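Annotated sample (chain length 309).
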Amino acid sequence: MFAILFLFLQENFVKMRKLKVGIVQQKISENVQVNMDLLKKNIEQCADKGAQLVVLQELHNTLYFCQTENPINFDLAERIPGPSTDFYSQIAKELKIVLVTSLFEKRAEGLYHNTAVVFDVDGTIAGKYRKMHIPDDPAYYEKFYFTHGDLGFTPIKTSLGMLGVLVCWDQWYPEAARLMALQGAEILIYPTAIGWESSDVDAEKKRQLDAWKTIQRSHAVANGIPVVSVNRVGREEDPSCQTAGIQFWGNSFVAGPQGEILVEASNMEEENIVVEVDMSRSEQVRRWWPFLRDRRIDFYGGLDKRFID
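Output written by the structure step:
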């Protein structure tokens, strides 16, 4: 009886703080302007449902061009600030939301990044994050296009709190999530573009999807903070015709600080979803599971090595 009363008092002592999060899971076409106009409409739908924070998927303006290595695709990149940041800044300002976008950044001649840009409610750029981990796998030839990020794993301060924004391949690395949390990130956000290659059999598809969900939910558990993962959806053809393209698997989701799934989108369909996240639960969970307190930081020196022989 005492234990139940203690938990009740503890849960009600922590001041409730609710955040409405919108996620946009969208199919992408060859027409950039059509994509952006549809994104605007979908963002507005989320805002109409009360979303304060809206998160878009990785490289949402264009098809996933990294299926091939083609120098012409560098023409898709743009400066930050530039036309796209002007477009999304105006949306954030009009709707009075915090908006997380994902753009192909041209930093200088011949120097490009995969960059997340966050806009605050007044339309200003609150900050940006350049993707740190760059894959180079069949159908995901990102190292051809993107330079590794150099801004570090630093949360972005907004009017809604500290956002730990990472991008896609970063989601497989617990070090990235931990460093964001250690610097005060209150929520982890992963704009994503991941799917099945045409040769994957059904059993392998299930293993990949399960692993993708599990690793991100584990970041929520290990750090005691919510996770937002927004993936693209639909089949995108391989321009080289060497494969049958990628079927992006959707399944965008929001998880709470114990890894609990708060909402999850479908596997195949476009969806706009708004979910309420109780941000005060992080304090409660960290009291129950004080992982940050019990870390043996005096014995983690080997983590800065590629491998310990």
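Annotation: DSSP finds seven helices and 17 strands in the chain.
Annotation: The chain has one domain: 20-289.
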